[in-house]
Design a protein that fits this description.
mainly beta, Lipocalin, 5-stranded antiparallel sheet, 47% strand, globular
């Protein structure tokens, strides 16, 4: 039987306290984004929790598109590759499409390790609209191929992912473009320093090549060159990434453990394969194919599965075909018509709470199941309008620095945002006029958060920007001790209880001592935990394969675990004390079959990658159905079913069950549940209901039950 809402007050209250009730369709099969580094500040400055939840009205294809809007200002907005935070990005296999430009950016992670200063991450990146070439061929670059190119009164910073940011010389200073808050300085000896908003510095040689990277704690990553080629990258702990060449072409990458990746090229100097280190004597590779414009048109992964990419004019991404022949397509057009297209679309008029942004260009995305989403871009490349397949429309406004200042949901509810001159978010106002405000210190560190009731949380930092203290609205303070490398060595809570941490020379955590004096110890080999010894002296041992994947766990007092993987790193077998489990996957890496001692369970997906059925070990099948916007509308098994109805913001307003009951939800302007009523469907008789009241900070302050159980 499918789960039915019981009459128990406790369960109903749990549903209410979730603030919004939504049934999320399974995500569109996400592309592999391993190796894509995203830098976050110590504390998030974009606490739009409720607005973030409301953004899930878009269909599953666009969950990742909208996620780009959650962070108003990352340290270095990328262009022309990955989308700016004000632009929509469309995920594809191994990368993302910038819908403002049509640039396809593909990434291929090679190797990485952690440690002080962040360790090392070596990633290859392709940009379809790039006009540049590097040691890995035309339109390709890598993580440490940063450059500063001086051209007249401009300096172009080319990042390791192909990002190009143009700084303009004015009044003796190089000024960044709107929406970028990094600082570029040219010194008297013609060397350069790029200081990112968060404080990280990149130093460049006089010829513009990257020399070193230094964080606020002084941890340094050093680049070394020979004959014009980058031959090594040394991390803050002295571990070395080595690069080998044939002429000017990069042909080998050797990590700190001595593992070697080799790169091959065709007669035109284009990268055609990346060959991984041997694993149990077997060689695996990823292969690339090209068109006449040096655009990647094929990727064949380690398992021999091939994805194809198509392009329109100016190397703009047009389509992707997966190994099963399913096609995702993009279309581009000139602006002007987005206000009226879409089924039952309602135009923005003069009485709208926020103005309709001028749309300079339009586009659409269609998945293999036929679901389409349309978007409109401003002349500045900002996402101005997003409309789903049902005509539900979200509108965005921006300031001159591309900061998102307002967002109007399909229901008409408006969220508003303000910023300081450095792009730090100063306030968030919800549709009910409740405001949360923020203050900042050096390098964009949050120093104070004040909720709509005036409750304040304070944050303190040392001179290097490390978090040292948090004081909550009640005056309770948690303190942090940090060593010279920025590693936390002790945490003391408001009661004076202290937990201590110790590290080895490479920054691996080796010991944790709790407030009672109990100590847990860890041993490592090449950044991987090999042993854990608890306070009672019990030892757990971990083992790994040649690619660094966990393959065995030896427990001191229970059955051991052994693990196996395929060439793409997906778990294919797990053996523990209960027996053996095997796992099978489709081309997208979604698990479609699991065999266990109790039997076999399976899952199927539609052309858009949405879960359509699950069959358990008893043979019982659950099926899932979706509407044109990709929202889950029905779940059924052989004996029961439940149907879901949504409002314009894609929040569930009704759940109808096969046992002649239904649950109805009412929301306030901020998208919070204010009423839950469980009724007999055929007679509308109330079984039980709850009315929820919130304070200005969004906290539940009262729940009234009807009829009362008192």
């Amino acid at each position: 039987m499918l789960r039915r809402f019981p009459y128990l007050r406790t369960l109903a209250t749990v549903c209410i306290l979730s603030l919004t009730v939504q049934v999320a369709a399974p995500l569109f099969a996400s592309p592999s984004t391993r190796g894509v580094k995203t830098t976050f500040a110590s504390l998030s400055t974009d606490n739009n929790t409720s607005s973030s939840k409301l953004l899930t009205w878009a269909n599953s294809l666009w969950n990742l598109v909208l996620s780009t809007l959650q962070s108003a200002n990352p340290p270095l907005p990328p262009a022309p590759g990955s989308p700016h935070p004000w632009q929509p990005g469309y995920p594809v296999y191994s990368g993302v499409v910038n819908l403002a430009t049509g640039n396809l950016q593909l990434v291929h992670p090679v190797c990485s390790w952690g440690g002080k200063g962040g360790g090392i991450s070596f990633v290859l990146t392709f940009n379809s609209q790039s006009a540049r070439s590097s040691s890995v061929g035309p339109k390709w670059t890598h993580s440490y191929h940063w450059q500063v190119i001086s051209q007249g009164n401009q300096a172009i910073v080319v990042a390791g992912d192909g990002t190009e940011t143009v700084f303009t010389l004015s009044g003796g200073q190089y000024l960044p473009p709107a929406g970028v808050y990094d600082q570029l300085v040219r010194h008297a000896d013609s060397t350069w320093t790029l200081t990112h908003k968060g404080g990280l510095k990149r130093y460049f040689l006089a010829d513009g090549r990257l020399d070193r990277i230094v964080d606020l704690n002084g941890n340094t990553v050093q680049c070394t060159y020979s004959g014009g080629n980058l031959v090594s990258v040394t991390d803050a702990c002295g571990r070395v990434l080595q690069l080998g060449y044939s002429g000017s072409r990069l042909t080998s990458v050797t990590d700190a453990e001595g593992r070697v990746w080799t790169l091959s090229y065709d007669g035109s100097g284009r990268l055609v394969s990346v060959n991984d280190p041997l694993l149990n004597g077997v060689s695996y590779s990823t292969q690339f194919g090209y068109d006449a414009n040096n655009n990647v048109v094929r990727i064949t992964n380690r398992l021999g599965k091939t994805w194809s990419y198509g392009y329109s004019t100016n190397s703009r991404f047009a389509s992707m075909t997966d190994p099963d022949g399913r096609v995702w397509s993009l279309s581009y057009s000139s602006g002007g018509g987005i206000e009226r297209y879409g089924r039952d679309a309602q135009p923005i008029d003069a009485t709208s709470p926020i103005p309709m942004p001028p749309i300079a260009s339009e586009g659409g995305v269609r998945d293999p199941s036929g679901v389409s989403v349309h978007y409109g871009m401003t002349s500045s490349g900002e996402l101005g309008v997003l409309r789903d397949a049902l005509g539900n429309q979200t509108v965005f406004n921006y300031d001159a620095q591309h900061n998102r200042t307002a967002m109007m949901l399909p229901s008409g509810a408006v969220w508003q945002y303000s910023y300081d001159a450095r792009g730090n978010q100063l306030s968030v106002r919800d549709p009910l006029n409740n405001t949360t405000s923020y203050q900042y210190g050096s390098y964009g560190r949050v120093t104070l958060v004040q909720d709509p009731l005036g409750n304040q949380t304070h944050y303190g930092y040392d001179a290097r920007g490390n978090l040292t203290q948090v004081t909550d609205p009640l005056g309770n303070t948690t303190s942090y001790m940090v060593d010279s490398s920025g590693l936390v060595t002790a945490v003391t809570d408001a009661m004076g209880r202290q937990t201590q941490f110790s590290y080895d020379s490479t920054g691996n955590l080796t010991q944790v001592r709790d407030p009672l004096g109990n100590t847990t110890r860890y041993s490592y080999q090449c950044c991987r935990v090999t042993q854990r010894t608890d306070a009672l002296g019990r030892v757990t041992t971990y083992s790994y394969d040649g690619w660094g994947r966990l393959v065995g766990i030896d427990y001191p007092q229970s059955a051991d675990v052994s693990l196996q993987y395929d060439a793409e790193g997906r778990l294919t077998q797990a053996v523990d004390g209960t027996g053996t489990r095997t796992f099978e996957y489709d081309s997208w890496g979604r698990r479609i079959r699991q065999t266990a001692p109790a039997g076999t369970s399976t899952a199927t997906y539609d052309a858009a990658g949405r879960l359509t059925s699950q069959t358990d070990v008893t043979g019982r099948q659950i099926t899932y159905q979706y509407d044109d916007a990709g929202r889950l509308v029905r779940v059924s098994d052989p004996t029961s079913w439940v149907q879901y109805t949504y409002n314009a913001n894609s929040a569930v307003v009704r759940e109808t069950y096969s046992n002649n009951t239904r649950v109805e939800y009412v929301y306030d302007g901020a998208g919070r549940v204010t009423s839950v009523q469980h009724r007999v469907h055929s007679t509308n008789a109330l079984i039980i209901g709850y009315a929820v009241t919130y304070d200005a900070a969004g906290r539940v302050v009262r729940i009234n039950e009807s009829p009362s159980s008192a």
